[in-house]
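mind reviewing this fold:
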Amino acid sequence: MKKIASPLFQDLSEAELDTLAAAGHLRTRQFAKHEVIFHAGSCVREIGIVLRGSVHIENLDLWGTKSILSSISAGQAFAETYAFCGDALMVDAVAAEDCTVLLLSTRVLSDARVSPAVRDTLLRNLLAVSMRKSLSLSQRIFCTTPKTVRGRLLTYFSAQAAKAGGLEFDVPFNRQQMADYLNLDRSALSKELCKMRDEGLLEFV
């Protein structure tokens, strides 16, 4: 198996990845845009790693209101906490576009066929991935804390600029998805974006 560009497999060789695949702990699946990869309410025993495309982690409340909690891009993992804790999913993992996902079984950490060195490396990488995911969720909390539409947009754009290291950056959402992520009405978000553009605060295409 070719080297996988993901923090989860950092410091693992192609030969070690081949061993994991031969033991049945790795499998690849294709998903079409809008297809649900993991359903809320289900229990999973696999971690998803996006190889191509992107995945949205979404929450749908009893009244049908959807919120996008995070966007998972190529190389990133998802559902790792649920996979190891065994709790039922409280969210849906949905293909934001046609994508390829690598699924890693949690049984890998108890399989005697897998060397202790490989298990230790996976555990160390999982811890690092979980810490980064915690930071990402904290960022969304910061973005949805301001009371005003402009306040949420400014907080979100500031975070994106800091991540990009400059004032020009790409947003991984369309207009509706951004509204879902920031817990805003789409029309209110669009109106505020146009006002900010007219005031010379930002430019967008």
Summary: The longest helix spans residues 116-144. Helices lie at 14-22, 80-85, 116-144, 149-164, 175-181, 186-198.
